[in-house]
């Protein structure tokens, strides 16, 4: 079994794979305030609440977009699992061509998602990840990265309104019943959710138009993807575990090199 860890700006998602089967999954808040001991003990303790034993973990792969947390999590894994974790980077075997001037500029999570789509669904495709940022990445049929777009995520937009507008409340992200609003909370939710839906449709259509790829499939993931999908059928595939699957694929591509 392998432990896969996706460290995002807001949340860290952990999963355990037995072959190709995801047998356990957890979500925790991403924070750099935990020590290596606290991090290692916390991750180890998660196994007490599942049917998987920590003793069965034979290897670990980590994807991170938060450099500040890497020391505590890698040291914690080394100490409490006695494993040297594999760290996702653009120089490992990824099976796609990034074709960038500086591949290190691309977030590890985006690389992992592209790898997953290339392996599981094939190109040409647009990969949309609704996380702290909303990202659009395009892969052609030959596994070449074509372009990437980054926009503020839904939660970031909501927090910005709350922090910058004195009379606006902090709200939960959910789709209102109608775009027509009669109160402040519904008005904010309407603007955020329907605005994000419109943004998604426009960007997808512009990418298809400018690349002359009308048949680009759309693969979506991320915690807020279901909010977008609840209104219109935009996605060809909605895969909430896309990043975890990509980590498994990357591990398999690079396990022999590690040993």
TrEMBL record:
Active site (record annotation): 109 (proton acceptor)
CDD domains reported for this sequence: ASKHA_NBD_PanK-III
Q: In which pathway does it act?
A: Cofactor biosynthesis; coenzyme A biosynthesis; CoA from (R)-pantothenate: step 1/5
Q: What is its EC number?
A: 2.7.1.33
- Provide an example Pfam family for this protein: Pan_kinase
Catalytic activity field: (R)-pantothenate + ATP = (R)-4'-phosphopantothenate + ADP + H(+)
Location(s), subcellular: Cytoplasm
Provide the cofactor note recorded for this chain's UniProt entry: A monovalent cation. Ammonium or potassium.
Q: Which InterPro entries match?
A: ATPase_NBD, Type_III_PanK
Q: State the UniProt keywords alphabetically.
A: ATP-binding, Coenzyme A biosynthesis, Cytoplasm, Kinase, Metal-binding, Nucleotide-binding, Potassium, Transferase
Does the keyword Kinase feature in the UniProt annotation? yes
Gene Ontology molecular function terms on file? ATP binding; metal ion binding; pantothenate kinase activity
For the protein in the UniProt heading, the enzyme class is transferase
Q: What does this protein do?
A: Catalyzes the phosphorylation of pantothenate (Pan), the first step in CoA biosynthesis.
Q: How does it assemble?
A: Homodimer.
Q: Which family does it belong to?
A: Belongs to the type III pantothenate kinase family.
Q: What is this protein called?
A: Type III pantothenate kinase
Organism for this UniProt entry:
Candidatus Fimicola merdigallinarum
